[in-house]
Amino acid sequence: MHYDPEVFGAQRPLQELIEDFEFLDDWEDRYAYLIDLGKQLTTLPQSYKSEEYRVKGCTSQVWLIHSQTEENGQVIHHYNADSDAFIVRGLVAIVLSAYSGKTNHEIEQIDLATLFSKIGLERNLSISRRNGFASMVAKVKEWAQQS
Fold first, then answer.
1. Range of 51's domain?
2. Residue 30 bears catalytic tag
């Protein structure tokens, strides 16, 4: 897939998201923030909302696309995704902030399980949401390993 900045959009820095979550004291505030992140996410064009791009293992509909560019001899991965549920769109925003614009090595080094725990989402999201999140991360890492 060709990299088009308008399709892939700009992602907020992961550290900024972590700091925002750490600032919030209770689960209700974190949940509301997650929904806000989902509302801010760039909408994926309808042409990508097909079975070809659907992430298996998610309860909600999630579509994930990937492109790569080369910079200084290294592959840079670009991701965008969308969902039919705002809370899942918020989780998508975290995945995109963590992985989009990163090299293979950087992607390998990211430990989202620890991050998930650190920002207080691990214990408050349903198992099906956590499994869907894991499915998105697995697909991102699969594409990175294939390059």
1. 5-146
2. no
Question: Do the Cβ atoms of 119 and 18 come closer than 8 Å?
Answer: yes
112: CATH: 3.90.1010.10
d(CA 136, CA 57) in angstroms, rounded, equals 8
Split into its structural domains, the chain has a count of 1
Question: What is the per-residue pLDDT across 25-77, written as a single tens digit (0 to 9) for each?
Answer: 888 999 999 999 999 888 899 999 999 999 998 789 999 999 999 999 999 99
User: pLDDT: is 147 or 110 the higher one?
Assistant: 110
Phi-psi category of 44—alpha, beta or left, where left has phi over 0 and alpha has psi -120 to 50? beta
Q: From the candidates 14, 37, 58, 144, which is the catalytic residue?
A: 58
